[in-house]
Amino acid sequence: MVSSLKIGSVMGIPIKLHVTFLLILPFIAFAFATSPPPLGFSNVPDIWIRIGLSLIGAILLFACVLIHELAHSYIAVHNGIKIGGITLFLFGGVSEMEDIPRNPAVEMFMAFVGPATSMVLGVIFAAIYFLVPGMKSDPYTGTMVALLAYMNIALAIFNILPAFPMDGGRVLRGFLAKRMPYIKATRIAVSVGKLFAYILALLGILTWPTGLWFIVIALFIYMAAGEEERSTTTSMTLEGIKVKDIMTTDVHTLDVGTTVAQAIDTMFRLKHLGYPVVEAGKMVGIVTLNDVSRVPVEARATTPVRDIMTRNVITLKPDDDAFTALQKLSTNKIGRLVVMDGGQMAGIVSRTDMLKALELYEVARAGVTSPNA
Ligand SMILES: [Zn+2]
């Protein structure tokens, strides 16, 4: 299933809409349509104009979120950090960094420019509202400008909270990372994020039923904070480890003419669930348990794996970072990657290899870095 849709690109960075964004957009428009000015258009008499203005307001709000994300990306790109894309989703936007910035000062500045940009936008809209003659009394443009002023300032304040995944959490980590190891700084920033989540959830319970929203946001912050800790720990654990260090080198292959029944038999015998498929010594695809299980039992003895294999095999090089392998496994939602050295198949990295490597290196590193733990 495609979870996000590309709508264009800016500075060479693809801009995507996540499915949750398409769900929240009408919801925000609804909130604007039913709130009185300056937070909505509920006093606009014509229902279609009211709906139109509310939708435009919601779209403009997300345009402002996009500008906020572009500000992060701009600083990232200027500091040599690759941005894989910007995705707009339920609670705003996310810039997907391909590397974690290891320079705390850069990370702090990169995080800081987002809320700063939102604040500047908010102040500009507020200035237009208060300084342009006739704006305050205009129920259409005036309310729109006031709404955007409020929303951008709220976005700036919300994002400055020192809690992951808000920008303030990153500023806090950058600040701490100047004084202690990166992982420890991350752990502390994550704990602060979780503490915020608890406080917000408590607030939600106290103000029930309107507090439902606080609980939803609290849950989101809690999960995102945990995710940040996991991905940081993983990337630090795998630092310096190459694909060739963790791959399985004794690779069993299947010929294109192998039947599905024979392939299943091989899976039983060798206990591997995926095999590269070769034709005249060249890899032409990959076949997994998932592929063979879709073939009806009566057709298994006659169907060659050629007909059911995945032709578009995602490959790695032996010198790629292990973390890259992990990212490729999870972004493509697949179980294994084939390692190619020149034109030769050198090995396979499976999800299981990855987990084993993670456990091993975590233990090994713990022994080196924290003798008192
Ligand atoms: Zn931000």
Automatic annotation (TrEMBL):
For binding Zn(2+), which residues are annotated in this chain's numbering?
Answer: 68, 72, 167
| Transmembrane parts of this sequence | 12-35, 47-67, 74-94, 109-132, 144-164, 195-222
Q: Which GO terms describe its molecular function?
A: metal ion binding; metallopeptidase activity
Q: Which residues form a coiled coil?
A: none
Cofactors: Zn(2+)
Instruction: Kindly give the Gene3D superfamilies that the UniProt entry links to this protein.
Output: CBS-domain
InterPro entries per record: CBS_dom, CBS_dom_sf, Peptidase_M50, UCP006404_Pept_M50_CBS
Per UniProt, subcellular location reads as: Cell membrane
Membrane protein topology class: Multi-pass membrane protein
Which keywords annotate this record?
Amino-acid biosynthesis, CBS domain, Cell membrane, Hydrolase, Membrane, Metal-binding, Metalloprotease, Methionine biosynthesis, Protease, Repeat, Transmembrane, Transmembrane helix, Zinc
GO BP annotations, alphabetical order: methionine biosynthetic process; proteolysis
Q: Which Pfam families match?
A: CBS, Peptidase_M50
The record describes how the cofactor is bound as:
Binds 1 zinc ion per subunit.
Signal peptide feature range: none
What is the active site of this protein?
Answer: 69
Q: PANTHER family given for it?
A: MEMBRANE-ASSOCIATED ZINC METALLOPROTEASE M50B, STAGE IV SPORULATION PROTEIN FB
Q: Which protein family is named in the record?
A: Belongs to the peptidase M50B family.
Query: What's this protein's name?
Result: Zinc metalloprotease
Origin species, per record, is Methanocella paludicola (strain DSM 17711 / JCM 13418 / NBRC 101707 / SANAE)
